Amino acid sequence: MRADARTRGELEARQSWTINGARLAAAGPWVVLAFLATRPETAQAYDSAAGVAVLTAGAGCSVFAYQVMRRIGRLPEESRVLR
Predict the structure, then answer these.
(1) Which range of residues forms the domain containing residue 54?
(2) CA–CA distance from 58 to each of 15, 35, 44, 53, 62 (Å)?
(3) Which residues of the chain have pLDDT under 50?
(4) Is residue 13 part of a domain?
(5) pLDDT given for residue 71 in this prediction
(6) 3-state SS, residue 83
(7) How far is CA 39 from each of CA 21, 28, 32, 36, rounded to the nearest angstrom?
(8) Is residue 27 part of a domain?
(9) What does the CA dihedral 68, 69, 72, 75 come to, rounded to 10 degrees?
């Protein structure tokens, strides 16, 4: 059981790297957009109904992709031996 617990601990540590990478990948485009939004030309480009639609669709895609990554990378539940 100790070996199983140690193996699970190693898997959880590796999984945390994957989750942090996914968070960075999901936040990256929004950080770039925030930097670009400091320029008046970029702010004007998204100051219309079409710009808001693009931002909303991008946010939805980011959230969906992040949730899919979490579901794919989830470790299986550990079964209990004694209940």
Answers:
(1) 2-72
(2) 26, 16, 18, 8, 6
(3) none
(4) yes
(5) 84
(6) coil
(7) 28, 18, 12, 6
(8) yes
(9) -130
